[in-house]
Structures are given as C-alpha cells and as structure tokens.
C-alpha cells in the first residue's frame, strides 16, 4: 500500500540541477543507483569557473556519466557535443530521457564499460574529458592510462578528475600537467592539461 502511494520514493529517485548556461536552474530526474554520486553544486560551480575558457564549442566526453551532471552542465554552457559513457542500463536510459527532456540533439549516450571502450582509439579525440568514477574501484589509473595511450584527448585538451581524497594519484604522462587542484570534504578534484 505504501509503495503504491509513493512510487517515486520506492524507485529511489532524486534530481540534479543545472547551475548555469542555456538551461540554468533546470532540474533533471535521476535514479538513486549504487555508486551514483553526483558532483555537488558547490564543487560544480568551482570546476566550471575553472573550465570556462575551454567550454565553448568543446567536444566533451563524460567518461563515467552516472547522473550526467557534468556533461549536462557542459552542454548548457555551449559545448558543441557531449558523449556519455555509462555502464548501468537504468542510468543510461535516464540520460537519454533527460537529453530528450532538454530537447538536446548534440549528445549521445553509450551504454558501455568505460575502460573497455577506452581500449580502442576514438574516431575523434575530445577537447574535454570528465573522469568521475565510482570511488574505491581502482578505475582511475587504467582510465588515465588508456586515454593517454589511445589518444582520446586532443593535444591541447583538458581532463577534469574527481577522486577520493586519500587516493594516490598515478604518475601522469610527461606532457600532462595539473593546473588546478582542490579538496572539499572527502573529495579531491583536479584539472589536468595536455600540453603536448
């Protein structure tokens, strides 16, 4: 009886908010799935202030999309295209629904294992890659390695990396440089620039 009265609660859903750009203030529904940890508005605000010079017309990859919070924010701020990689079927479907809700045609959702996807070189490299994987799963090191190895990032591209504070950052390729680095609570977030 209780579930019938409140289906939203039983599905465990929530929402994310787009903080700036053409869809400023729009709220998008998300499923409360295991490992889903949307970037907080406070962190997102800082990050997108950092990324402002690189955003316009950027080709963006949201590598572990989850709620799509980072990719949607980039599209709202006039990135030219966004690709969302997401492993969980339910989350991938929600990303597609939210793109339709925004009437957004310059994005695609690929339901895939991100690490497997990164093993193959892309048709075209990305200007900006968001890496915000589930914590404590050992995904950061191989992810960065495959991006460098298979040239997923343009020669002057930018990576946004969000990791657990205690994680030891793997050695970066010589041409990659950390240009911003901040910690908020249990989260460390960085901007890495490819200066090839």
Question: Architecture, CATH level 2?
Answer: 3-Layer(aba) Sandwich
Helix segment tally? 7
Structural class: alpha/beta
Helix share, percent: 25-40%
Whole-number total of structural domains: 1
The Rg value, from CA coordinates, equals 16 Å
Terminal CA distance reads 61 Å
Helices and strands in order, then pairings?
Blueprint: H1 2-5, H2 7-11, E1 13-17, E2 27-31, H3 41-55, E3 59-62, H4 69-76, E4 81-86, H5 89-101, E5 107-111, H6 114-118, E6 126-131, H7 140-149, E7 153-164, E8 176-184, E9 187-194
Parallel strand pairs: 3-4, 3-6, 4-5, 6-7
Antiparallel strand pairs: 1-2, 7-9, 8-9
Describe this protein's structure.
By secondary structure, this protein is α/β, with parallel strands linked by helices. The chain has one domain: Vaccinia Virus protein VP39 (Rossmann fold). It is built from 7 helices and 9 strands, in the order ααββαβαβαβαβαβββ. Strands 5-4-3-6-7-9-8 form a 7-stranded mixed β-sheet, sandwiched between helices.
What attributes characterize this protein structure?
disordered N terminus; seven-stranded mixed sheet; 7 helices; 196 residues; globular; Rossmann fold; alpha/beta; 31% strand; two-stranded antiparallel sheet; single chain
The gist of it:
The protein is an alpha/beta fold and 196 residues long. 31% of the residues lie in helices and 31% in strands.
